[in-house]
Amino acid sequence: MKPGDMVRLIGSMWSSYEREGEVGLLLESSIMNNRSGYPNAEFSRVFWGTDSPRGKISICKTSHLEVLNENR
Q1: Domain count within the chain
Q2: In the chain, what is the greatest distance between 2 CA atoms, to the nearest angstrom?
Q3: CA-based angle 33:34:40, to the nearest 5?
Q4: Would you state the pLDDT for residue 21?
Q5: Predicted local confidence at residue 15, as pLDDT
Q6: Does residue 17 belong to any structural domain of this protein?
Q7: Is residue 20 domain-resident?
Q8: Which pLDDT does position 13 carry in this prediction?
Q9: Is residue 1 part of a domain?
Q10: Whole-angstrom Cα distance, residue 18 to residue 61?
Q11: What share of the chain is helix, strand, coil (3-state, %, to 5)?
Q12: What pLDDT was estimated at residue 19?
C-alpha cells in the first residue's frame, strides 16, 4: 500500500468508523506511537471525496484498509 492507491475501508471493531465500505485515496502511511491506544501501529491518512464540496481527510488504521487500485 502506497500513496496514490485507491483504498476501501473494510471496517474494524470500532463503531466510530462511519465510512465502512467507502472508497478513498491513500495520501500517506506512518507508524504512530500510542494513537488510540495502539502501540507502534501503522495509520494512514485518506482523502474521502464523497463529502461535498471538497471532500475530507481522516486517519484510520492501515490494517483496516483494502487496496482497490494500485498507483504504479
Answers
A1: 1
A2: 35
A3: 45
A4: 78
A5: 47
A6: yes
A7: yes
A8: 55
A9: no
A10: 14
A11: 5, 50, 45
A12: 74
66 CA to centre of own chain: 9
**Can you give the length of the chain in residues?**
72
CA distance 48 to 58: 8
Mean pLDDT confidence for 57-71: 86
Four-residue CA torsion sign, 23, 53, 58, 3: positive
Is residue 4 within 8 A of residue 71, CB to CB? The reply is: yes
pLDDT digits (tens, 9 = 90+) for 4-54: 999 998 866 554 567 777 889 999 998 877 666 667 788 899 998 876 678
Residue 18's domain spans which residues? 6-69
CA atoms within 13 A on the CB side of 42: 9
Cα–Cα distance, 24 to 45 (Å, whole number): 10
Distance between CA 14 and CA 5 in Å, rounded? 24
Domain annotation covers residue 52: yes
Model pTM score: 0.77
